Amino acid sequence: MTDLDGRPIAETATAVIRNPVLPGFHPDPSILRVGADYYIATSTFEWYPGVRVHHSTDLVSWRPLGGVLTERRLLDLTGTADSCGVWAPSLTYADGLFHLVYTDVATFAGGYWDPQNYLVTAPSMAGPWSDPVVLHGRGFDASLFHDEDGTTWMLSMRADWRPGRNRFAGISAQRYDRRHRRLTGPEHVIFEGTDAGLTEAPNIYHKDGWYYLVTAEGGTTWTHQVTVARSRQLLGDYQVDPAGPLLTSAGRPDLALQKAGHGSLVQTPAGEWYLAHLVGRPYAPSDRCVLGRETALQQVDWPTGAWPRIRDSVPAEQVAAPSGTAVTSGPPAPQTDKDHFEGTTLSADWSTLRRPAAPDWVDLAARPSHLRIHGGQSPMARHRPSLVARRVTARRCTFEATCESEPRSFRQLAGITAYYNSRNWYYLHMTADDDGGVVLDVLACDSGRVTTVQDVRVPLGAVRRVGLRARLDGPALTFAWTTEPGSGWHEVGRTFDATTLSDEYAATAAPGEPEAWGFTGAFVGLWVQDLGAEGGYADFDQATYRTD
């Protein structure tokens, strides 16, 4: 018996959690239980809806609910740079309300982040969500801790922009007044971190008379870790667990799950503990992670008065599910999602780039069972792109769509893309040549340099409706097309490097400072440009995503 990536799965008589539970781009998890319901909120960066949420009742099976920040009233990503936007949300519950804290990061150049923190609340995950409360901008990875005495505290990493200083200058805490919806009192620096450095992502848990502070350290890459410290008082003095990190993959290139860190704890109704955390799955040791940073769960042993422990302090590909969970009969079947666009809104699997899915450019009503996408700006623009995409969740997968378009010039393009960010993507599209003839072509963008792929152009003659396909087979990406669905596919004839669609490839280094960071993972999607703003659009009457 093997999983979707061909790895052996040991047969067992107990229910298991198979990691990652949220495959593909789902980083920085914040896990919460309310009654019998579990929720995980994850970062979304420059993508709408902001803060993606999944729901479960057993920690094994997770259902996407979509995102919380669905409109510009709650989040404005206009002009947001690659891998900026929504970082590290925190989901908590108090006073009968869900509390969601999130950071909108403006930059990370030159030692600055310009992080602005916000809080929204709602009586249910379906909303309605309140107008955002503006919190401080002193750092990112903010969270709320609701203490047993009725007080609430806002935590965050403390950013120090000054040259030569530690940019991750500890963890700060400040009272938050839930009644008046504002911060109050002084800022307290409660923890300065360990020698691992880059201390961030604080969460506090009160257990057995101790305040346990859980942080992420080592940077969100191969040296990532979860650090635990504790104190009898909320404001410290915090002492670090002498046994070392609660969880890390550092120094273990043999592990399938790498980059383990950024943890959040949850307790089951039966008193069992689990840690939600991010991981990456490189195609080879220390290789690129095309699927981005994903969410996994680990079982935690936490005896009364003792430190929490994870077996061997490393991430496991499968762990025991909570007691009483129904046993399943092996790994999940390959996934097939086919969308005929028959609803009034996009399904929870879709995301849109830098602007919410509004009817002025995402139209599900103009033509029955079709998605009409009105063309937007160029692939490099950060204000009005027209990209509707979904996360790549498996090393081997296929994305197909049927596109109908009438391009009138080279300024109008429509098709499918394998996309990482504005600087790294591939694009199979319909467009018009200088003589007005409609052609099928491929563009590639590598670190910001756009090229037309040679010797793949296909004249379409009178054809205006084509099937388009992108297939990822590990590091290999191929495209194909057909004018008669069911009659066979025509390969484009080139194999592309899928690993350019990864965090590692996107992170180009400049002396002393990354020129660009990559945090988002690969997408496949539907893309339309109308560079002359002349009314160009395309209709898609189906899109299928399938894992092999």
From TrEMBL:
Pfam families for the chain: GH43_C2, Glyco_hydro_43
Top-rank taxon: Bacteria
InterPro entries the UniProt entry points to: ConA-like_dom_sf, GH43_C2, Glyco_hydro_43, Glyco_hydro_beta-prop_sf, Glycosyl_Hydrlase_43
Keywords assigned: Glycosidase, Hydrolase
Domain Beta-xylosidase C-terminal Concanavalin A-like: 338-546
Family: Belongs to the glycosyl hydrolase 43 family.
Protein name: Xylan 1,4-beta-xylosidase
Organism of this sequence: Actinoplanes palleronii
